[in-house]
Amino acid sequence: MISKAAILTSSSYRIRRSRDLIEHYRVLMERIEQELLALKHVVSCIKRSMALAREHSQEQDVYLDSVALNLHDFYTGLERVFKRVAEMIDESVPTGRNWHRDLLWQVAKEYSPFRPAVLSEKN
Questions:
Q1: HepT-like domain: from which residue to which, for each copy (predicted)?
Q2: Quick check: pTM over 0.85?
Protein backbone atom coordinates (compact mmCIF):
# COMPACT_ATOMS: atom_id res chain seq x y z
CA MET A 1 0.00 0.00 0.00
CA ILE A 2 1.17 3.51 -0.84
CA SER A 3 1.68 5.77 2.13
CA LYS A 4 -0.04 9.12 2.52
CA ALA A 5 3.38 10.81 2.57
CA ALA A 6 4.28 9.22 -0.79
CA ILE A 7 1.03 10.46 -2.32
CA LEU A 8 1.60 13.97 -1.00
CA THR A 9 5.20 13.97 -2.23
CA SER A 10 4.07 12.78 -5.67
CA SER A 11 1.33 15.42 -5.82
CA SER A 12 3.76 18.12 -4.73
CA TYR A 13 6.19 17.06 -7.47
CA ARG A 14 3.45 17.18 -10.13
CA ILE A 15 2.40 20.66 -8.99
CA ARG A 16 6.01 21.91 -9.13
CA ARG A 17 6.46 20.30 -12.53
CA SER A 18 3.27 21.96 -13.79
CA ARG A 19 4.43 25.35 -12.52
CA ASP A 20 7.82 24.85 -14.20
CA LEU A 21 6.11 23.99 -17.50
CA ILE A 22 3.85 27.02 -17.27
CA GLU A 23 6.88 29.25 -16.68
CA HIS A 24 8.73 27.54 -19.55
CA TYR A 25 5.88 28.26 -21.97
CA ARG A 26 5.42 31.80 -20.63
CA VAL A 27 9.07 32.53 -21.41
CA LEU A 28 8.66 31.08 -24.90
CA MET A 29 5.55 33.17 -25.49
CA GLU A 30 7.32 36.36 -24.37
CA ARG A 31 10.27 35.67 -26.65
CA ILE A 32 8.00 35.02 -29.61
CA GLU A 33 6.03 38.20 -28.88
CA GLN A 34 9.28 40.23 -28.80
CA GLU A 35 10.35 38.70 -32.09
CA LEU A 36 6.97 39.45 -33.67
CA LEU A 37 7.28 43.11 -32.64
CA ALA A 38 10.71 43.24 -34.25
CA LEU A 39 9.27 41.61 -37.40
CA LYS A 40 6.53 44.25 -37.58
CA HIS A 41 9.22 46.92 -37.50
CA VAL A 42 11.12 45.15 -40.30
CA VAL A 43 7.96 45.02 -42.42
CA SER A 44 7.46 48.74 -41.83
CA CYS A 45 11.03 49.42 -43.01
CA ILE A 46 10.47 47.32 -46.13
CA LYS A 47 7.29 49.23 -46.98
CA ARG A 48 9.01 52.60 -46.48
CA SER A 49 11.99 51.59 -48.60
CA MET A 50 9.75 50.30 -51.38
CA ALA A 51 7.77 53.56 -51.39
CA LEU A 52 10.99 55.59 -51.49
CA ALA A 53 12.34 53.44 -54.32
CA ARG A 54 9.23 54.22 -56.35
CA GLU A 55 9.48 57.95 -55.60
CA HIS A 56 13.23 58.28 -56.29
CA SER A 57 13.93 56.21 -59.36
CA GLN A 58 17.49 57.55 -59.76
CA GLU A 59 18.40 56.25 -56.28
CA GLN A 60 16.24 53.14 -56.51
CA ASP A 61 19.19 50.75 -56.08
CA VAL A 62 19.94 52.19 -52.62
CA TYR A 63 16.38 51.68 -51.45
CA LEU A 64 16.16 48.21 -52.99
CA ASP A 65 19.35 47.25 -51.14
CA SER A 66 17.54 48.27 -47.97
CA VAL A 67 14.56 46.11 -48.94
CA ALA A 68 16.85 43.13 -49.56
CA LEU A 69 18.60 43.57 -46.22
CA ASN A 70 15.29 43.86 -44.40
CA LEU A 71 13.88 40.80 -46.18
CA HIS A 72 16.89 38.89 -44.90
CA ASP A 73 16.22 40.24 -41.39
CA PHE A 74 12.60 39.16 -41.71
CA TYR A 75 13.51 35.62 -42.67
CA THR A 76 16.11 35.28 -39.91
CA GLY A 77 13.55 36.62 -37.41
CA LEU A 78 11.10 33.92 -38.45
CA GLU A 79 13.87 31.37 -38.24
CA ARG A 80 14.62 32.47 -34.66
CA VAL A 81 10.96 31.90 -33.74
CA PHE A 82 11.01 28.44 -35.33
CA LYS A 83 14.27 27.59 -33.59
CA ARG A 84 12.86 28.63 -30.20
CA VAL A 85 9.82 26.42 -30.77
CA ALA A 86 12.08 23.54 -31.76
CA GLU A 87 14.30 24.06 -28.69
CA MET A 88 11.64 24.68 -26.09
CA ILE A 89 8.78 22.44 -27.24
CA ASP A 90 10.21 19.79 -29.57
CA GLU A 91 13.46 19.68 -27.57
CA SER A 92 15.26 18.98 -30.83
CA VAL A 93 16.90 21.42 -33.23
CA PRO A 94 18.23 20.16 -36.55
CA THR A 95 21.96 20.34 -37.14
CA GLY A 96 24.21 19.83 -40.08
CA ARG A 97 24.50 21.35 -43.51
CA ASN A 98 20.76 21.43 -44.20
CA TRP A 99 19.57 22.53 -40.76
CA HIS A 100 17.68 25.55 -42.13
CA ARG A 101 15.58 23.41 -44.48
CA ASP A 102 15.17 20.67 -41.87
CA LEU A 103 13.96 23.25 -39.32
CA LEU A 104 11.25 24.40 -41.74
CA TRP A 105 10.15 20.81 -42.30
CA GLN A 106 10.17 20.15 -38.55
CA VAL A 107 7.96 23.09 -37.59
CA ALA A 108 5.64 22.39 -40.54
CA LYS A 109 4.71 19.08 -38.93
CA GLU A 110 2.39 18.69 -35.97
CA TYR A 111 4.22 17.58 -32.83
CA SER A 112 1.28 15.89 -31.19
CA PRO A 113 0.16 16.32 -28.46
CA PHE A 114 2.47 19.24 -27.70
CA ARG A 115 1.89 21.67 -30.56
CA PRO A 116 0.17 22.05 -33.92
CA ALA A 117 2.12 22.65 -37.09
CA VAL A 118 3.67 26.12 -36.96
CA LEU A 119 3.70 26.45 -40.74
CA SER A 120 1.08 25.38 -43.23
CA GLU A 121 0.76 25.51 -46.99
CA LYS A 122 -1.41 28.62 -46.53
CA ASN A 123 1.45 30.49 -44.79
A1: 67-122
A2: no
